[in-house]
Specification:
The chain is an alpha/beta fold. It folds into five domains: 115 residues, 3-Layer(aba) Sandwich (GIY-YIG endonuclease), CATH 3.40.1440; 63 residues; 187 residues, Rossmann fold (3-Layer(aba) Sandwich); 172 residues, 3-Layer(aba) Sandwich (Rossmann fold); 89 residues, Alpha-Beta Plaits, CATH 3.30.70. A seven-stranded parallel β-sheet has the order 13-14-11-15-16-10-17, with helices on both faces. It has a six-stranded parallel β-sheet with strand order 18-28-27-19-26-25, with helices on both faces. A five-stranded antiparallel β-sheet has the order 2-1-4-3-5. A hairpin with a 2-residue loop joins strand 21 and strand 22. Helix 1 crosses helix 12 and helix 5 crosses helix 7. The structure holds adenosine-5'-diphosphate and zinc ion (2 copies).
Length: 735
């Protein structure tokens, strides 16, 4: 970032600031009174806002304002001499606020660590140096005569540059240093020694497909490009990342790796740490603030070589970025679905463009968006079609359960296969994407059901610990012993959840350990590592779990995967339903046969003839042309752009009326439409009534204009305090 000096001309200096406020705009301030120094974009500043003083961020230093300068208020203080943001990082955040049409004052703080957001100084490195500028060098000895302390500092700097910490220990005070900098006699510079990072353990011998991908990625270093690494489960995508990262580190650059989950994938973290003789820093939601502040500073100062992080890490400052990897790019965990709604994958791509570095998107089940971009030639595509190492891809078999007698959802055939696999000493994974014991509790006599008082949903029946639990609002209630409506004792569970299947399997296979894996049992940070360690022993184990089991884990001893209820996913009303079904089943199936013994995947369905169920036999991408075709016909992403304006309020009519009103003046373009206002699929959640406008357009520019008009109308339309509205561009769900 160029050092912009205080302007000597008569143009006013104006600090354009992102202020913590729900308004979608910047606020301009004058520098503090008597101010003579320089300020740079990316520095924090204390400003008056209404009657309060708040910490804001300078997003630009300019000389023009739409507000007359006599009406501008002066800032109270500049908090940072050096900006806390890198230039590209600041541009990224400002871009994201614009693209997602979210208040810039809420977006920019995502580039700071928790402590920095509260106004704490950056954790210092001791690696900032001070050196003379050409102007300082040119001063005669002993000058400036009227400031002997400054003159002494200049004499000291003539001996050579020195770190700020060093100067302070030699007794030079901050104001003296600042005075030289302000008069451009000296300048601060970053004197962190250049990193020399090593690869520790030798890489595996890449197979030819891996080699081709690595070489292609490395060949694009130093410029922006996107690589879609489409590799079947267990094909060695991680090895491709590791070798591409090794090259990046050898050039002294940092790599940012985004993962859907970190706490759940300790294996990945361990592999990265083992491979590099360089600092690997992880960032995830389980970290405390101090730990986060440290990780943040290490990334900004270039001390962290590899940054492994979840969604929000896409905004970390990086001193020397060379490569960005998004692993499991299709995963919904990359999409923030409340507050500031964004896709970390899409932001990562924009970041690659701003940082001029390659971006690698890896998946065994790429999203339709990424696949389409590769088809259009916008992304380089590299395929890994075989399993690396010992494993081979599992065989799939469908079991038509129409008319069959099931036990806790399981057919006799599946039970037989489980028994055989366990007896042969292998591990089994039973997949059922529903927590709890039963979906709901029903009265056999009067039809009462365990509806949540706060949501349009039923409360799930749990047995361990016993109770009713709403998975939408987290409300809990005691288990009734008789029907609250007719006092009948004949209460029955409806629909099967993991606890029920677990109970049945524990009894049926009493000589084998049965382990349930869902968010109820895996909440602690050490739960997943402990499970993985246990499985590594290779003893026969029966696991029953939810989609948590689909997340990239390497379970080498699992040879049988049983999908209890494929149909639950088959008829989703959401536009991504089919894509998600295909991804989930491919990922879960991919846990089988990752070592020598070949694996098998059994899928229970009542619709074996359904085209999508048929597709499960073929490689994942065979299904994509027809799914893309459906999207094209419906004008849905990636063909056409989608946005949703959501509203929640204390009563439905109020929300609907608000949306109708803001819809009034919205522009209409050819191929665009605004659907609604309509109630959301779950019209009431946590006692809030939810409704929405869905905007579809044939291109992004048209979408942006329509949404901007809706946003402007929403900001100027009066509404009750209890009504909230938000914008969702490229929504993951449109319900
Ligand atoms: P993915 O990330 O595609 O699911 P992984 O990178 O986890 O696959 O690789 C699966 C297994 O194959 C791992 O145990 C890994 O060590 C091994 N592996 C990967 N590449 C190679 C290779 N070139 N030679 C031998 N083993 C490999
Ligand atoms: Zn009843
Ligand atoms: Zn609820």
């Amino acid at each position: 970032m160029s050092q912009k000096l205080a302007d000597n001309s008569h143009d006013p200096v104006i600090w354009r600031c992102a202020v913590p406020s729900p308004l979608r705009r910047h606020f301009d301030y004058l520098p503090p009174e008597q101010w003579t120094g320089t300020a740079r974009a990316g520095a924090r500043v204390a400003v008056p806002f209404g009657k309060r003083a708040v910490t804001a961020i300078i997003s630009a230093v300019t000389s023009e304002s739409s507000v007359e300068s006599s009406k501008l208020r002066p800032a109270k203080a500049l908090l940072d001499e050096q900006p806390l943001y890198t230039e590209a990082q600041l541009s990224l955040l400002i871009w994201a606020a614009g693209y997602y049409q979210h208040p810039v004052g809420e977006v920019l703080p995502l580039g700071l660590s928790p402590g920095e957001r509260r106004g704490k100084p950056e954790r210092p490195t001791g690696q900032t140096g001070l050196r003379l500028t050409a102007r300082g060098e040119g001063l005669p000895d002993g000058a400036p005569h009227r400031a002997p302390k400054q003159a002494a500092l200049i004499t000291r700097l003539r001996e050579g540059p020195v770190t700020l910490t060093g100067l302070k220990s030699e007794g030079f005070s901050r104001p003296v240093i600042a005075a030289l900098v302000d008069h451009s006699l000296a300048e601060a510079y970053d004197c962190t020694p250049d990193a020399h990072w090593q690869v520790q353990s030798p890489p595996l011998q890449a197979n030819w497909q891996q080699q081709a991908a690595i070489e292609a990625i490395v060949a694009t270093s130093g410029s922006f490009s996107v690589h879609l690494l489409y590799g079947v489960t267990g094909s060695g995508k991680t090895e491709v990342y590791l070798q591409a990262i090794a090259d990046c580190l050898r050039r002294g650059q940092q790599a940012l790796v985004l993962l859907p989950e970190i706490a759940l994938t300790p294996q990945t973290q361990a592999r990265f740490e083992a491979r590099f003789d360089a600092p690997v820093v992880t960032m995830h939601s389980g970290m405390g603030d101090a730990e986060r502040d440290r990780a943040w500073a290490a990334a900004r100062q270039g001390r962290a070589a590899v940054i492994l992080g979840t969604r929000s890490s896409v905004f970390v400052p990086l001193r020397q970025p060379g490569l960005i990897v998004v692993d499991e790019e299709h995963d919904a965990a990359f999409v923030q679905q409340d507050g500031f709604r964004y896709s970390a994958r899409d932001v990562a791509i924009k970041r690659g463009q701003l940082e001029q570095c390659p971006v690698v998107l890896g998946s065994a089940t790429p999203s339709l968006e990424s696949w389409h971009n590769a088809e259009m030639g916008r992304y380089h595509r590299h395929s890994l079609t075989e399993r690396a190492g010992a494993g081979s891809l599992p065989k799939q078999r469908k079991i038509d359960i129409t008319g069959l007698e099931l036990s806790a959802g399981l057919s006799p055939e599946i039970l037989h296969q489980i028994e055989q696999t366990l007896t042969q000493g292998h591990q089994v994974l039973v997949f059922l994407n529903r927590r709890g014991f039963a979906n709901a509790l029903l009265c056999h006599d009067c039809g009462w059901s365990s509806d949540c008082t706060d949501c349009d949903a039923r409360m799930t029946l749990h047995k361990t610990p016993p109770g009713l639990h709403c998975h939408h609002c987290d409300r809990r209630a005691a288990l009734p012993h008789q029907c609250p409506h007719c006092q009948s004792g004949r209460l029955v569970g409806s629909g099967i959840g993991t606890q029920q299947t677990e109970a049945f399997l524990t009894e049926r296979f009493s000589t084998f350990p049965v382990i349930r894996v869902d968010s109820d049992t895996m909440s602690g940070r050490s739960a997943m590592p402990a499970l993985i360690e246990r499985l590594a022993s290779g003893e026969p184990v029966l696991m029953i779990g939810t989609q948590m089991l689909s997340k990239g884990h390497h379970f080498p001893h699992v040879t049988l995967v049983a999908v209890v209820d494929a149909d639950a996913l088959l008829f989703s009303p959401d536009f991504r339903g089919e894509e998600r079904l295909l991804q989930l089943l491919t990922q879960v199936g991919g846990r089988a046969g990752r070592d020598e013994t070949p694996g098998e995947v059994l899928i229970q369905t009542r619709h074996p003839e359904h085209p999508l169920v048929q597709q499960l036999d073929a490689p994942y991408h065979f299904a994509l042309p027809s799914l893309l075709n459906h999207r094209a016909q419906a004008g849905l992403p990636p063909h056409g752009a989608l946005g949703v304006v959501r509203c929640d309020s204390q009563n439905l009519q109020e929300g609907l009326a608000f949306l109708s009103q803001i819809k009034g003046d919205a522009p209409i373009f050819a191929g665009s439409q605004i659907i609604g206002p309509v109630p959301a699929a779950m019209a009431r959640r946590k006692n809030r009534y939810r409704c929405q406008l869905v905007v579809s357009a044939s291109n992004r520019a048209a979408l942006a204009k329509i949404i901007a008009s809706l946003v402007a109308a929403a900001e100027s339309t009066g509404h009750s305090r209890h009504l909230n509205w938000s914008v969702d561009i490229d929504p993951y769900e449109s319900l």
